[in-house]
Design a protein that fits this description.
The complex is a heterotrimer.
Chain A: E1 3-4, H1 24-27, H2 37-47, H3 49-67, H4 110-145, H5 147-162, H6 165-175, H7 180-207, H8 210-217, H9 222-258, H10 270-279, H11 288-315
Helix pairs in contact in A: 2-11, 3-11, 4-5, 4-7, 4-9, 4-10, 6-7, 7-9, 8-9, 9-10, 9-11, 10-11
Chain B: H1 2-27, H2 45-54, H3 61-73, H4 89-124, H5 129-143, H6 146-160, H7 173-202, H8 205-213, H9 217-234, H10 237-243, H11 249-254, H12 263-270, H13 273-301
Helix pairs in contact in B: 1-13, 4-5, 4-7, 5-7, 7-9, 9-13, 10-13
Chain C: E1 3-16, E2 19-32, E3 36-40, H1 47-52, E4 62-71, E5 74-75, H2 82-86, E6 93-96, H3 110-121, H4 126-139, H5 145-149, H6 158-171, E7 176-180, H7 188-205, E8 208-213, H8 216-222, E9 225-230, E10 233-239, H9 240-245, H10 250-257, E11 307-308, E12 314-315, H11 331-343
Parallel strand pairs in C: 3-8, 3-9, 6-7, 7-8
Antiparallel strand pairs in C: 1-2, 1-4, 4-5, 9-10, 10-12, 11-12
Helix pairs in contact in C: 3-4, 3-6, 4-6, 6-7
Classes of the chains: A mainly alpha, B mainly alpha, C alpha/beta.
Chain lengths: ~325, ~325, ~350
């Protein structure tokens, strides 16, 4: 016995109760997903207002540091300015119309020094970061993937890691003249270790996952597996480390300058400037010489840090919901 | 377990041996002028030779290496040649270690307490007020180089709170700023990792089951999440404790603390080989054995870990 | 029989990447005291979501849009705070999850984990609680409970772990037990043991059980009533015999036809053409219509209501309307029913 439960069923046209011609293709209309990894990443990143704001800020800052020397009224960073009347060095002048951030203890314009220093520090950071990324990933990937090399590279890593970087830096400073390239070279050859180990740990974890075993069974060459299967998984963490490399490089640079292994004084860098300011820290009216470099440094490092983390979060597919 | 420990121990000693030997050789690549400092100009050839001879630098390299290792095995770390001439290295270390050690241990206690606490607080209020504040704190501490914020702490704390600038063993208030400065970084580190591990645990299936059992969220946090999240962090704890001896270069110089902080850098720059070698032996030893102890600690916490799968990078 | 749980026209939606997905589209279900009800359906039909909503375990991006879940004079669909749910979870409704390998805390002994469940719902001293734990472990068929009490999950096999999970669920002394694919992750031989165990426990502890499964073999073994679910709606529900020997909904026909049968080598296996619909879009009419060779024109326009076949058996299909043409059951189904009758 069949009983319709609802009365609305009665008002329906009789003719509708005929068999519909079956169309097999309509059956295949599934839900389709227009998911695009990079678009989702970008969208997630944009949702983070703070990170987006800082990214815009950093871009403006970068452009500014590059065009600053060509703007009008700019002074030279290493020129010592003399008072016109007395011919004495314009030392420790407070910020004024002439010198927007004031002058330092030997009469150099602080505004231009800071921007020149930022340029230098950012340059160092980018180069070291790039080198770290390329070499670190390369070695890390091979280290993690090729089992036979694991023991050897691990021993090399353990030894290298425990040698104080200071020794290497001091040696290099003696062998090569202290200058910008020496500093960059020194930071590069000690910095790649961290990235390599990091990449290696991740690769060890995913090396034996089923999709990689499947690739190996199909005879995919090692290089291709690394490049197509493993590295895309690592993109988010690699971008994170890259972004963090810049604050790290600036930090190293400050440290090196502090112990006397930094850049020579005639090349301004944020590290130099902080150290110069540090000496004068305790007298209140000279404090500006510490503040301005510190503020610029903080803005730069914090921005890169936040951007890096925000991008890493956005690039994680688990967050793409 | 015992067999594994012995094997790790031997591996650790081997690595240590290599590290120390490499450093030994590297130091001997330093230019000879460095051994004399300012008096380089004033001395003539024979005097310089005599001095180098007395430092043992004229013997063949292999002999130097052999003597060095034999010395270590007998517990003799040599005498400082430049930093404090003729003073046994162990004496120098003995006077300096207590300062760095006590400050460091105090700092670890504080940062563990505050860091883990902050991490838990941040997880509990995920996305809300405390999480945002905590994240801001971690960002600033991690991004800005320590040297910079140490300066600002010293500047403002001494001016606003009238805390003393120079460290004095007998004045407790002079301990506050150094310990505080040292704790900031580690607190941020512990907080960040604790939060990350806790959030990872929260997504796991057994937490769902605990919820389905009828457990309150708070109880789940305390009884399941916190304990499980702490396990991966235990790995780094022994090494951190050991490394407190190393002291902080910046803090000790900012507050004039006669500790271990600047010793290594100083020794390297002055090319005081015995001192450098002793320090490297000590620090490398801490690093290598510290991680070994960390692995054992982790295995103690996590019954799943079969120790023979550990090892690897140290 | 007394009705203890009544779900009426439940609609559950999820927010995914800014778009709304309707996972449950007006499903209704009744549960009677002491019975075993099985919900069958393919992956993605919404079986888990349906039952999780009864315990407040929906993911954060999901919500109950409309409908009621009536239990003991409460409308569980209206619950907002954790406190309200704490009266239900474990105490009244407990759940056994699918994957025993990850359902237990790896760093706690299983004795402790079962004890937690016991102590959450009873005020007892530790020693008394331990006695209860040991007796429950015995009930679920774990040998040497004294020894196993102190062991960790990784020392147990999959089947044993699932027994522990069942022990935890039962330890809460619930009225309703929801088993979400309890045997899917286990070997076939263990499956039978676990199903027998659940049947025994049902009698001993006077439970009403809801089984979620996509395995019709499991259903035949234990269920009193069967509900067939498709695309977030229950399309047919009836006694176990009625569903197997008198299926009425075209989807049920298709489901039964796709059971692999012992046959002649070289015969094609039946597979339902097409794939389930996209739940992001609003579905007009019967969700199964595009894949149904016997669909009527009206199936594409109006959603069919329940048509009663017997007091206990109803199905949502326009084929049961008196005006519809008589569509016979597929030959494969007739053959199955014949063979089934012979066995009986």
């Amino acid at each position: 016995m069949r009983k319709p439960i609802q009365k609305i069923a009665d008002n329906i046209d009789e003719s509708l109760f005929t068999i519909h011609t079956f169309d097999a293709s309509k059956a295949e209309q599934t839900g389709y997903s227009n998911y695009s990894y990079w678009r989702s990443t970008w969208q997630m990143f944009l949702k983070n207002k703070v990170a987006f704001f800082l990214m815009v800020l950093i871009c403006i800052l970068l452009i500014f540091t590059l065009i600053q020397p060509y703007l009008p009224y700019q002074k030279l960073p290493t020129e010592i300015y003399l008072d016109e009347t007395t011919n004495m060095q314009l030392r420790n002048q407070h910020p004024s119309i002439e010198h927007w951030f004031g002058t330092n203890s030997i009469g150099q314009d602080l505004w231009s020094r800071i921007w020149s220093g930022t340029r230098t520090s950012l340059f160092i950071g980018f180069i070291v970061g790039l080198f770290e990324a390329v070499i670190g990933i390369l070695i890390g990937a091979i280290w993690g993937y090729v089992r036979k090399l694991d023991r050897i590279i691990t021993e090399i890593y353990n030894v290298w890691n425990n040698i104080p970087t200071t020794i290497i830096l001091v040696l290099l400073t003696y062998i090569l003249r202290p200058c910008l390239s020496t500093l960059i070279f020194a930071m590069c050859i000690t910095g790649w270790l961290g990235m390599a180990r990091f990449v290696r740990n991740l690769i060890v974890i995913i090396r034996d996952r089923e999709y990689n075993l499947a690739s190996r069974c199909l005879g995919t060459p090692t290089g291709r597996i690394i490049y197509k299967n493993l590295l895309p998984y690592l993109v988010s963490v690699i971008m994170l480390r890259l972004a963090l490399a810049i604050p790290a490089a600036i930090g190293s640079e400050v440290f090196l300058t502090y112990i006397g292994l930094g850049l020579p004084v005639d090349i301004p860098s944020l590290g130099n400037l902080i150290n110069e300011g540090r000496i004068l820290m305790m007298s209140p009216d000279l404090r500006y010489q510490l503040f301005f470099p510190a503020i610029v440094l903080s803005v730069v490092t914090i921005s890169f840090y936040v951007i890096g983390n925000a991008f890493a979060d956005a690039a994680d597919p688990r967050n793409h919901v | 377990m015992l067999k594994y420990s012995l094997k790790r121990l031997l591996q650790s000693f081997f690595t240590l041996f290599i590290v120390v030997s490499v450093v030994f050789l590297l130091m001997r690549l330093m230019p000879e002028e460095g051994y004399f400092g300012e008096s380089f100009e004033k001395l003539d050839e024979t005097q310089k030779e005599a001095i180098l001879e007395s430092m043992g630098l004229r013997d063949p390299l292999i002999i130097q290496l052999k003597d060095f290792h034999l010395g270590i095995l007998q517990g003799d770390l040599g005498k400082s040649i430049i930093y404090r001439p003729k003073v046994p290295v162990t004496e120098i270390l003995k006077t300096k270690i207590p300062y760095s050690l006590s400050l460091g241990l105090a700092s670890i206690c504080i940062s563990l307490f505050c860091g883990l606490g902050l991490g838990i607080l941040m997880t509990r209020s995920k996305g809300k007020f405390w999480d945002k504040i905590g994240t801001g704190y971690i960002v600033v501490i991690n991004a800005v180089p320590a040297a910079v914020y140490y300066l600002f702490i010293q500047l403002y704390a001494t001016n606003c709170f009238k805390l003393p600038i120079l460290f004095d063993v007998d004045r407790p208030t002079s301990w506050i700023l150094p310990i505080l400065s040292m704790s900031l970084g580690s607190t941020a580190g512990y907080a960040m990792w604790m939060r990350r591990y806790m959030v990872d645990e929260l997504n796991k299936d057994y937490i769902r089951l605990a919820k389905a059992k009828g457990m309150k969220n708070k109880t789940i946090m305390v009884k399941h999440v916190m304990r499980n999240a702490f396990v991966p962090m235990a790995q780094y704890l022994p090494a951190s404790i050991l490394f407190t001896i190393a002291g902080s270069l910046y803090i000790e110089s900012l507050y004039s603390i006669p500790g271990m902080g600047g010793l290594l850098v100083d020794a390297i720059q002055r090319q005081d080989n015995p001192l450098v070698q002793a320090l490297v032996l000590m620090y490398a030893g801490f690093s290598i054995f510290g991680l070994f102890l960390g692995d054992i600690l982790m295995a103690a916490f996590d019954p799943r870990i079969k120790l023979d799968q550990q090892g690897g990078v140290r | 029989m007394k009705k203890i749980l009544e779900i009426q026209d439940l609609v559950i939606k999820f927010n995914l990447r800014g778009k709304t997905l309707t996972a449950i589209r007006g499903a209704s279900l009744d549960l009677y005291k002491g019975e075993s009800l099985a919900i069958v359906g393919e992956s993605g039909s919404g079986k888990s979501v349906f039952t999780k909503s009864c315990m407040g375990l929906l993911d954060q991006n999901g919500w109950i849009d409309s409908g009621h879940i009536l239990y003991n004079d409460f409308d569980l669909g209206e619950f907002k705070t954790e406190k309200e749910w704490l009266n239900i979870r474990g105490k009244k409704i407990a759940m056994v999850f699918q994957d025993p390998m990850t359902s237990l805390n790896p760093l706690k002994t299983i004795g402790k984990q079962v004890e937690e469940a016991v102590l959450l719902h009873r005020k007892l001293k530790k020693s008394e609680a331990k006695k209860i734990v040991l007796s429950i472990l015995d009930d679920v068929g774990i040998p040497e409970p004294e020894v196993r009490y102190k062991q960790y999950p990784f020392e147990f096999s999959g089947g044993m772990r699932q027994r522990v999970v069942i022990a935890i669920a039962v330890a809460c002394n619930p009225e309703i037990l929801i088993c979400d694919e309890p045997t899917t992750a286990l070997d076939v031989t263990i499956q039978a043991q676990i199903m027998d165990l659940l049947k025994n426990l049902q009698e001993k502890y006077n439970l009403s059980i809801i089984y979620i499964t996509h395995d019709l073999g499991v259903v035949a073994h234990v269920a009193d009533r069967v509900a067939v679910m498709y695309a977030g709606d229950i399309v047919e529900i009836g006694l176990s015999d009625e569903i197997f020997f008198d299926p009425r909904h075209p989807y049920t026909w298709a489901l039964l036809s796709s059971l692999p049968q012992l046959g002649i080598k070289g015969e094609d296996l039946y597979a339902i053409q097409g794939t389930p619909p996209n739940l992001f879009k609003e579905i007009k009419g019967d969700a199964f219509a595009p894949r149904n060779p016997n669909a009527l024109e009206i199936d594409f326009i109006h959603k069919p209501p329940y048509f009663e076949i017997t007091d206990t058996h109803k199905a949502k299909t326009w084929l049961l309307d008196p005006r519809a043409p008589k569509v016979p059951r597929p030959a494969l189904i007739e053959k199955l029913i014949l063979e089934g009758n012979e066995v009986v």
